[in-house]
């Protein structure tokens, strides 16, 4: 009864057609739409949590906030935000006790929609994950969330701030001519012989282009159109004068391999000054993570340029 009455009330109050159109262009409601003044929001996705925070919207609860703070270091999540449990196995009783006005999920949460709709109106955002330009799509969703929750100005300012930070990083990178001219692999080590390498259609890949850098990885075969590929180290040989950047921390096995493996030593980036260690930045972030990525990469490339000149 409570859910049905609440849903009808929300639908009645949400009569502003312009706001409905703006929200529906970027998200699909799995039920009723929330009122634009809703403040009690729960989120079951870390990247959506970042988008909210960038627009000055603090959720009442999120999935595994401790893990979020560790992975999304550019974001300031207040200590009072409730831990809802795992991303795809949330604590439904706790969510019910929070009495949220709206629940935000991604398309990956389809199996949970029926259960979540019994608690509160549920909206599906996060379609930027599958976009060929995921950062641009994330900015569009940031604006939609800002409009939905009456934080339009804050959302627009977040994007403006990120654009300015990326422009500054691009200027810094432009002052490193010998380093900037080299194609760049962006990777995460899975083990001592395999990496996840990010292509042009990834969050990092789109930002590389905005920073004026050439992505060394174009994919192979079926992976050519993917955001990333999992491949062996010896496959990273397409660019003879490349630099390899990897996100830390680096495990002991991979660290040992760099010192002893003949395959590694034969790679074009294995010579001194050919690799960059970067602090962790999530591969599916929004404006805050994009700003951090641009900053740490520009600093790393500037430092590398000094070693080459």
TrEMBL record:
Residues 1-28 form the signal peptide. PROSITE patterns: FE_B12_PBP (PS50983), PROKAR_LIPOPROTEIN (PS51257), TAT (PS51318). Pfam families: Peripla_BP_2 (PF01497). It comes from the Bacteria. The keyword Ion transport applies. It is found in: Cell envelope. Keywords: Ion transport, Iron, Iron transport, Signal, Transport. One of its GO terms (biological process) is iron coordination entity transport. The keyword Transferase does not apply. Its main location: other. Residues 40-305 form the Fe/B12 periplasmic-binding domain. GO terms for cellular component: outer membrane-bounded periplasmic space. Belongs to the bacterial solute-binding protein 8 family. This is Periplasmic binding protein.
């Amino acid at each position: 009864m409570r859910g049905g009455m609440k849903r009808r009330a929300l639908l009645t109050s949400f009569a502003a057609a312009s706001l409905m159109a703006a929200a529906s262009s970027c998200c699909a409601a799995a039920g009723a739409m929330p009122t634009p003044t809703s403040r009690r929001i729960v989120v079951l996705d870390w990247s959506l949590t970042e988008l909210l925070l960038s627009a000055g919207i603090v959720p009442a609860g999120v999935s595994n906030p401790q893990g979020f703070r560790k992975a999304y270091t550019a974001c300031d999540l207040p200590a009072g935000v409730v831990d809802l449990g795992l991303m795809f196995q949330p604590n439904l009783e706790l969510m019910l006790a929070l009495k949220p006005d709206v629940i935000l999920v991604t398309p990956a949460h389809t199996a949970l929609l029926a259960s979540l709709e019994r608690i509160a109106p549920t909206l599906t955002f996060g379609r930027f994950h599958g976009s060929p330009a995921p950062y641009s799509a994330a900015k569009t969703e940031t604006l939609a969330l800002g409009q939905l929750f009456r934080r339009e100005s804050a959302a627009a300012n977040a994007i403006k701030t990120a654009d300015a930070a990326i422009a500054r990083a691009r200027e810094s990178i432009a002052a490193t001519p010998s380093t900037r001219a080299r194609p760049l692999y962006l990777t995460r080590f899975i083990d001592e012989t395999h990496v996840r390498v990010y292509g042009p259609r990834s969050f990092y890949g789109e930002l590389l282009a905005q920073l004026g850098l050439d992505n060394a990885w174009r994919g192979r075969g079926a992976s050519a159109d993917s955001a990333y590929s999992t491949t062996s180290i010896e496959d990273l040989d397409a660019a003879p004068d490349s630099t390899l950047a990897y996100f830390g921390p680096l495990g002991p096995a991979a660290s040992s391999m760099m010192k002893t493996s003949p395959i590694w030593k034969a790679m074009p980036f294995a010579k001194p000054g050919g690799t960059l260690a970067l602090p962790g930045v999530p591969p599916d972030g929004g404006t805050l993570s994009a700003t951090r990525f641009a900053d740490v990469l520009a600093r790393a490339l500037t430092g590398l340029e000094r070693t080459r000149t």
